[in-house]
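Q: Structure tokens for this one, please.
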Amino acid sequence: MEPRKLLEEAVRALLKSRRFKKNGATWRAENPETILVLNIQKSQWGPQFYINCGVYFRKLGDEAAPPSHRCHIQTRLTSIVPDSPILTKALDFEFEISDQERMDVVLRCVKTAALFWLEARDSEAKARLAISQQGDSDALVMAAAKQHLGLDAA
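A: Here is the predicted structure, written as tokens:
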């Protein structure tokens, strides 16, 4: 199976069960105040992939299907998962492991880290709390989002 398709298949059922809808290599879950985004991105330099997570605030834009790079809060799964080296190897198709092991690692990391991170920011109040408590040093938080959430000094 083609690498991107393999990664997509690993997370398809889980994301669908959490209300995410797929478009290309991107899944989105719509909430009243936010759109949660998970994207599988291929490296332009080799057979490596990245899983990007983002939160888009509806009050800060009018995009119905924002890409992860235009989300107001962005991170890569390898930045928030505890076993980052294992995930990095699973997302690198030069590293030889079985397809099943690769899929298992990706699914586990999306389930335990990506969805947890996204759901902890699925409303403005939750995002404000997550950023103020954790500082979101593992994420890029746009200045407009900090200002909108009243976290200018954060």
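A few notes: The first strand starts at residue 21 and ends at 23. The chain is about 40% helix and 20% strand.
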